[in-house]
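Just wondering, does anyone understand these tokens?
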Amino acid sequence: MNSCSINTEAPRWKETNEWRARIINFLDARLDHSFVTRFNDPTGIPVNVDCRNADAEHNLLYHLQYATNFRLEEFSKEPNF
């Protein structure tokens, strides 16, 4: 996430999608499919979070990464996580 405003580098979509796939597999295998459903639900995730000086595509990637971390942090606060 710290390279989100380096517009000269291609956004790291592949790595981010692979990371999210590993998270989804973990949630589904170790917890419950309801966590996968909630993980993919954008409800409650701030939409006005951007990476300063990033172009539009880098901001889309940043927002996806932010949403991923936001949801994981939310899960980590739950007693059954």
